[in-house]
Automatic annotation (TrEMBL):
Residues 1-95 form the STAS domain. The lineage of its organism: Bacteria, Bacillati, Actinomycetota, Actinomycetes, Micromonosporales. PROSITE patterns: STAS (PS50801). Signal peptide: none annotated. GO terms for molecular function: anti-sigma factor antagonist activity. NCBIfam families: ant_ant_sig (TIGR00377). It comes from Mangrovihabitans endophyticus. Belongs to the anti-sigma-factor antagonist family. This is Anti-sigma factor antagonist.
Length: 95
């Protein structure tokens, strides 16, 4: 079921510097899409993230703030959740 104005992005696997540009393009593109009010980055299937991916998440958040779009992270678990907790991003962007 689709919810108008909502985009859910669902990356999977280990995300590292090789994935940064693609992830950032996907998040920023979703944020800037007409009619979008809320973008969720669903991390349920993500098993690893590095600092480059964190930078892409922050860039997405900044684009969302500039566009007046709500942006949040969902379903982070394991090491991914721990990295987000340690960096403070889970507190800021958790759903």
């Amino acid at each position: 079921m689709e919810t108008p104005g909502l985009v859910v992005l669902t990356p999977a696997g280990e995300l590292d510097m090789a994935d940064r540009d693609g992830l950032e393009r996907a998040v920023v593109g979703a944020v800037r899409s007409a009619g979008v009010q809320h973008v969720v980055l669903d991390l349920a299937d993500v098993t690893f993230i590095d600092s480059e991916v964190l930078a892409a998440v922050i860039a997405g958040r900044n684009a969302a703030v500039a566009a007046g779009v709500r942006f949040c992270l969902a379903n982070a678990h394991g090491m991914v959740r721990r990295v987000l907790e340690v960096t403070g991003l889970l507190e800021v962007l958790g759903s």
